[in-house]
């Protein structure tokens, strides 16, 4: 590993832009995973695509756990690197990987036992439920291949390297792109497996990220250690990670929980609305790639400079990253006003599904600029070890704004009202999040950042 904190000196704007650019490839790779599955499964039929939409909130919950662990590790590791404590950095990374493996095994076992009752509760019935069972029975078994790379890649990014994890994610996505049609529709000796085949292809492709993350952390960065630790060291590592990981994961789970509620709400209206909403939510990752990249890049920057006591750089970097997130999200909305229709035709041959997907992207997209600002502020608050503040604004966005507005919108305007509720909730919470972050960073009588 390069034995220095690479982000505590130099042009902060250039550093954030450079890391964001490096992250775009990874964000596109992650989005391609979801998009490719939806595009190919959509060719099987409306019920199959609806089944994939039902799995989306549950898959997001497991990924939220992984993301929470990754953010917790990144916050702890970037601050430790900023403090120049490199032996402790290796301990934090190793203990974080072990913790993530232990947690994902428990989650996978629980998930396998609850597939049918859970998705029945969400509203899946008949053939749609059968397709859901086909997909999730494979996905849960391979969930370690999803979680460990997400945690490992966050550790790599904490060093300031966003390009390597992005490249690995892109290679994995390319593998999925090739394998999906083989396992879904069959090719040569491989029989057609339908929805189950999509899960198998994804599991194989994700294994590339699993192996690569461990090799990069162990061989190149020297952030994995085989030294037998003292129990107090492990507890110290886990405590530092979980301090941020638990509230972050819980908050991230709010989003798929809300998606599950919205999916059930739309299921009362039509299966096509569910399919269009699910496809649109997956496509959002592509549309918002740069905005999400800025959010991932600013975390290591804030962490290293906070650990090094560079408070002025923390303040300037936060404001600059929030500006980038807002402008990029707003730009995406303007593009989707024109291109949402043609874009939606890539996902389904069914005109009704296409129309719902295009409607979602146009209406929800109105709030993309403020959504970027909200997500960015959350990342910064977590890295600064203010997870309770981040949790508070996320809970407000979901339970005080989004869900009540969605039910009201459905009652008054039907499906368009549900989609508009998302945009309105992000506009309101984005303003509040930006004001809170500004207050915590520069308010008189407060520390600018945690010591």
What does this structure look like?
By secondary structure, the chain is an all-alpha fold. It has one domain. It is 84% helix and 0% strand. The chain contains 16 helices and no strands. It has helices at residues 12-42, 46-82, 86-113, 115-122, 126-141, 144-158, 163-185, 194-220, 231-267, 271-287, 289-307, 311-344, 351-364, 368-383, 387-413, 415-442. Helix 5 packs parallel to helix 8 (194-220). The longest helix has 37 residues, at 46-82. The model is unreliable at 444-451 (pLDDT under 50).
Question: What's the total number of strands?
Answer: 0
Major β-sheet annotation: none
Order of helices and strands: HHHHHHHHHHHHHHHH
Total of domains? 1
Radius of gyration: 21 Å
Globally, the shape reads globular
Low-confidence stretches: 444-451
CA(first)-CA(last) distance: 25 Å
**From the helix content, strand content and strand pairing, which structural class follows?**
mainly alpha
Q: What's a concise summary of this model?
A:
By secondary structure, the protein is mostly helical. It has 16 helices and no strands.
Layout: helices, strands, pairs:
Elements: H1 12-42, H2 46-82, H3 86-113, H4 115-122, H5 126-141, H6 144-158, H7 163-185, H8 194-220, H9 231-267, H10 271-287, H11 289-307, H12 311-344, H13 351-364, H14 368-383, H15 387-413, H16 415-442
